[in-house]
């Protein structure tokens, strides 16, 4: 395994390419967005970084990364890699991590907004379903129950025990469904995990000139 520091466990690979004029790294991160239900949405986030440059465009970073991993790595001496990257790769990783976290927070806001909008639409359908289900459970008692509710004299105790228990089970199910979808909209702060680094070596520098 290629390493600049024996204490590091991060996976490092390299590629010789004519597509860059200066050495650059593509640092990849796993972005995790977990909601309050426990479900997790994950994204692969590559970030391009150079000695004096830093990408701000996530779309182009993905395009470059996925194109790069389909191409051969080429050959370059370890001494050349050390000369080109050893002095700044740690600092470059930190800059890439900051970019990845900024993007992750943006993704969280987008995901939360989308889910909140979906929940607004779903609430109406869920409420309508609940009301229809209550009507079906109450059956012949529904009209009387509605009249009592209208005048504020509703009492479930007046219902037959089997009907009352089915109504209570339904309302508990409805409460749990609402709770689930509300928690689904609550996306926690993102976490990011560094997965690996692709060192991109300009063809003109690959021979250690």
Short description, anyone?
The protein is an alpha+beta fold. The chain has helices at residues 58-68, 78-85, 89-138, 142-150, 161-185, and strands at 11-17, 24-34, 40-50, 191-202. The chain has a four-stranded mixed sheet with strand order 1-4-2-3.
Detail the topology: elements first, then pairings.
Elements: E1 11-17, E2 24-34, E3 40-50, H1 58-68, H2 78-85, H3 89-138, H4 142-150, H5 161-185, E4 191-202
Parallel strand pairs: 1-4
Antiparallel strand pairs: 2-3, 2-4
Helix pairs in contact: 3-5
Features:
209 residues, single chain, alpha+beta, 4 strands, 5 helices
Explain this structure.
The radius of gyration is 29 Å and the shape is rod-shaped. The protein has five helices and four strands, in the order βββαααααβ. The chain has a four-stranded mixed sheet. It is of the alpha+beta class and 209 residues long.
Structural class: alpha+beta
* General shape: rod-shaped
Strand content: 15-25%
Please tell me the overall pLDDT: 89
Count of DSSP H/I helices? 5
Q: Biggest sheet, open or closed, and with what strands and sense?
A: 4 strands, mixed
N-to-C order of helices and strands = EEEHHHHHE
Are there runs of 5+ residues with pLDDT below 50, and where? none
Q: How many strands in all?
A: 4
Strand arrangement, largest sheet?
Answer: 1-4-2-3
What's the end-to-end separation, in Å?
24 Å
Rg to the nearest angstrom? 29 Å
Helix content: 40-55%
């Amino acid at each position: 395994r290629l390493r600049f520091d024996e204490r590091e466990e991060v996976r490092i690979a390299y590629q010789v390419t004519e597509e860059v004029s200066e050495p650059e790294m593509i640092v990849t991160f796993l972005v995790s967005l977990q909601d309050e239900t426990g479900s997790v949405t994950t994204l692969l986030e590559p970030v391009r970084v150079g000695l004096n440059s830093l990408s701000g465009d996530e779309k182009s970073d993905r395009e470059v990364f996925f194109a790069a991993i389909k191409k051969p790595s080429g050959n370059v001496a370890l001494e050349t890699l050390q000369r080109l990257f050893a002095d700044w790769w740690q600092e470059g990783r930190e800059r890439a991590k900051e970019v990845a976290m900024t993007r992750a927070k943006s993704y969280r806001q987008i995901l939360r907004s989308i889910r909140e909008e979906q929940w607004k639409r779903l609430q109406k359908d869920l409420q309508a379903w609940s009301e229809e289900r209550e009507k079906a459970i109450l059956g012949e008692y529904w009209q009387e129950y509605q009249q009592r509710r209208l005048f504020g004299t509703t009492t479930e105790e007046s219902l037959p025990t089997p009907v009352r228990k089915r109504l209570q089970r339904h309302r508990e199910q409805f409460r749990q469904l609402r709770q689930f979808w509300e928690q689904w909209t609550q996306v926690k702060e993102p976490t990011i995990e560094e997965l690996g680094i692709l060192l991109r070596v300009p063809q003109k520098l690959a021979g250690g000139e």
